[in-house]
TrEMBL record:
Residues annotated as domain SET: 1-114
Alphabetical list of PROSITE patterns matching this protein: POST_SET, SET
Annotated organism of origin: Solanum tuberosum
Ranges annotated as biased composition (Polar residues): 223-232
Highest classification ranks of the organism: Eukaryota, Viridiplantae, Streptophyta, Embryophyta, Tracheophyta
Protein name: SET domain protein
Top-rank lineage group of the source organism: Eukaryota
Span list, region Disordered: 173-232
Entry keyword set: Chromosome, Methyltransferase, Nucleus, S-adenosyl-L-methionine, Transferase
InterPro entries: Post-SET_dom (IPR003616), SET2_Histone-Lys_MeTrsfase (IPR050777), SET_dom (IPR001214), SET_dom_sf (IPR046341)
Annotated compartments: Chromosome; Nucleus
Annotated Post-SET domain residues: 121-137
Family annotation (Pfam families): SET
Length: 232
């Protein structure tokens, strides 16, 4: 995992990977459309502008904002080297990231966020691809219906005004900062197996735990997505 200049944290490949290979499962809290909508609005109203809610089929969503796998650090590209896909394991539908083309060590892993939920805000895409659609999730099914464009006061990720990261939080790798101008910090609590983690706000101008959407905080869902079919 590495902090990148413009899109926050990203996931880099640490071995040569062949096209078609499975990389990682997308995990998080499985929530409904209503919960995703409320959760996204709550995150946004608390200035948490990096959103980690994936829309599976418009009805089921995986929210990896606070709990999930390292898949939640994979950034979007309009010309990605990975793809997101669903598959059935023992009757349960899972969501994973697969490599589209051979990748060598050190390359950033990316996939298209066309199925992501962005909670009401349009986020400027900084992938730099020639075919860039300029806004994350622009092709997603619910994009036009539920998203709005940030206008006045939206200084997020403007090239001249990149998010400021507090170096205090760089001293150990298990600490990441959010991208809301450096005032949202979260700490990775690894599960000991290195595959999943839990995020918790740390101090500074961080939002308190009690400020999170209580509905999302309190409901007790397990890791791993259970969704159906293969069509997003
Ligand atoms: C699933 S997270 C990816 C990890 C994130 N970069 C981080 O620092 O935690 C998705 C968020 O990353 C940012 N992001 C990912 N890809 C991006 C891109 N191509 N351009 C701008 N922001 C991007 C957006 O804020 C998005 O809501």
């Amino acid at each position: 995992m590495q902090k990148l200049s413009c899109s926050g944290w990203g996931l880099l490949d640490d071995e040569n990977i062949k096209a078609g290979q499975f990389i990682i499962e997308c995990c998080g809290e499985v929530i409904s459309f209503d919960e995703a909508k409320k959760g996204s609005q709550a995150y946004e109203s608390h200035d948490l502008k990096d959103v980690y809610i994936i829309s599976m089929d418009g009805n089921d969503f995986i929210d990896s904002t606070w709990k999930g796998s390292f898949a939640r650090f994979i950034n979007h590209s309009c010309n990605p080297n990975c793809e997101i896909s669903k598959w059935i394991v023992s009757g349960e539908t899972k969501v994973g990231i697969f490599v589209k083309q051979d990748i060598s060590v050190g390359m950033e892993l990316t996939y298209e966020y066309n199925f992501e939920w962005y909670g009401g805000a349009n986020v400027r895409c900084l992938c730099g691809a020639a075919n860039c659609s300029l806004i994350l999730g622009a092709k997603s099914r619910r994009f036009r219906e539920y998203n709005h464009v940030w206008e006045n006061g939206d200084d997020r990720y403007i090239v001249d005004d990149l998010p400021v990261y507090d170096s205090t939080y760089d001293e150990s790798t298990p600490v990441i900062s959010g991208t809301s101008g450096g005032n949202e910090h979260t700490k990775i609590l690894n599960d000991g197996e290195g595959s999943t983690f839990k995020l918790e706000p740390t101090n500074s101008a961080t939002k308190k735990k009690s400020q999170r959407n209580p509905k999302l905080k309190d409901h007790n869902r397990s890791l791993g997505a259970s969704v159906q079919s293969n069509a997003y």
